Amino acid sequence: MTPPFEKKILLGFASALLVVLLAVATTGWSLARFSSTATLVDHTHRVLGRLEQSVVGILAMETSTRGFVLTGSEAMLAPHRAGDARVNASLDELARLVADHPGQQQRLAGVTSLATRARTIMTEHIGARRARGLSAAEDINAFLAGQEAVESFRRAVEEMEADERNLLAAHLSRAQSAAFMGNVTLVATGAVAAALIIFAGLLVSRDYQRRCQAENSLRELNEHLEHRVADRTARLEAVNVVMRREIAERQQAEESLRHSETRLRATLDTMLEGCQLIGPDWRYLYLNDTAALHGRRHKQELLGHTMQSCYPGIDRLPMFSALQRCMDDRQPARTEQEFKYSDGTSAWFDLRFVPAPEGVAVLSLDITAHKLSEERIRQTNATLEQRVRERTAQLEAVNRELEAFTYSVSHDLRAPLRHIDGFAHLLIRSAGTRLDEQGRRQLDTISASARQMGRLIDDLLAFSRIGRSPLRLEPVELQPLISAVIADGNYQQPGRPILWAVGPLPPVHADAAMLRQVWFNLVDNAVKYSGKNPHPRISIACRADAAARELIFSITDNGVGFDPRYVDKLFGVFQRLHGSTEFEGTGIGLANVRRIIARHGGRTWAESRVGEGATFYFSLPATPAPSPVSPPAPTAVLV
Hints:
Layout: H1 5-71, H2 78-97, H3 102-132, H4 140-215, H5 218-269, E1 274-278, E2 284-287, H6 289-295, H7 299-302, H8 307-310, H9 318-329, E3 333-340, E4 346-356, E5 359-366, H10 368-431, H11 437-468, E6 473-476, H12 478-489, E7 499-502, E8 508-511, H13 512-529, E9 537-545, E10 550-557, H14 589-599, E11 604-608, E12 614-621
Parallel strand pairs: 7-9
Antiparallel strand pairs: 1-2, 1-5, 3-4, 4-5, 6-8, 9-10, 10-12, 11-12
């Protein structure tokens, strides 16, 4: 059954109304997306601002610390305290801002840790300057450690900034997508509404023709035409109402967008970092107050003009090439550039170029103070290097004199000692029957003391040679080396066998002769101090420390042990924790161990309790060293 004429009209306009409502809903959704994007953009810029505040604060702390170390003036520490407060405030605000971003929270934890490390190093510098005076400024490693900590902090902050800028780009992309979809929807719904109206008009026209043929009356035809005119008028009025409402909504959306743009510009204008927007024709589209201050020109003098006309010759600078690549390839870039002004002054800037829909966004940071600090540090380093060379030459001269003195003393002392020992033996043989027991014991003591003195001289010479001989690094298999050390020592005694437990030992990259001396001293030490145990047991093991990238070797005995309070004395020259009457030795063996292992880039330490045995440890790098370590210059104390 064909629907009545009025129902067809109502159906057509109802369909058109539904399409219009769909367009309105789509427009509302687009406006909501714009509002949400503006909020996210504002949040992102607040995070970026706080990140820049933290970098400015840490740089102020670094500059103040170096100034105090170089001058000793307490007034130089005022920027340090202000920078510390700025860093703390920025990190606290960042923790609140990134609370809903797990990835940024993790990076912020790293940034906070690096800030704490940099603060600790700066505090140590200040304390060292107060305690040791200007000599603290000669510690190059301390200066480099502080600079490395600040650079690590800056790199971590830059990673967070990059992530935030990616979020900003994603938000803007979603906003553009929403606007595009809104426009597409409006066009599509307009086309559908027009099609529905045309379709409804066709239906009305067809019904009208049928009525004309059926009624065959001019009056009825006129009435029908009047009705059609009235209907058309009503439709147009309804469409006009809808269009006026759409125009009002669009004006409201444009007003909201203008408000968001105003807020965004206000945020950019208050940034401590300069921000510029350059169009494809190199004209200034936007710049904040900081960027105008960096360029030493008013905004009105720059907006709408090209960079080349405002700053003649700028296209010949290296930074312009980086800007050109960013404009052409749409890839971010970063560089540092010194700008010279017409008044003869100059300034250094850290420049970052980021592609933008309008062209390229240029972010600038004044690093003139940082560059001046670097130059002062370079000059200080040059002075320190010269002083190091002079002191090295002095030490080399002293060491040559000490080596000559050592050689002379060792040879001059050997002859009297040999005479004392030899004549003591002759006296025992020639007058042995005439001497009582006490006399013979005294002569034996003289002879033993002379031999002990000879061993001390030999050990001192060996200790001195270890510090001077070059390292011959090569792959060394430890299993056969330790087996040879145990076999050569002939440590097994009748009725008192030693239980050896040697675990798997990896090959190492070391000086084979020196490493053999290390194991000989440690094995001999373990056998000697477990001599009073009727069932001696000695174990040798190795474990890898992946975090420290080193191999840790240990040798454990069940001997007399030692008091752990005096563990620091074990590896010193002539430092003994037991009397010479209890255990033989010169007190130089463990000192040789420490010196050899230190030259290989390792560590030595020990653990023990009295009566519970002892464990001695040393470490070696897990990967071969790139080149042999040059022998350290011996000091007067060691010789």
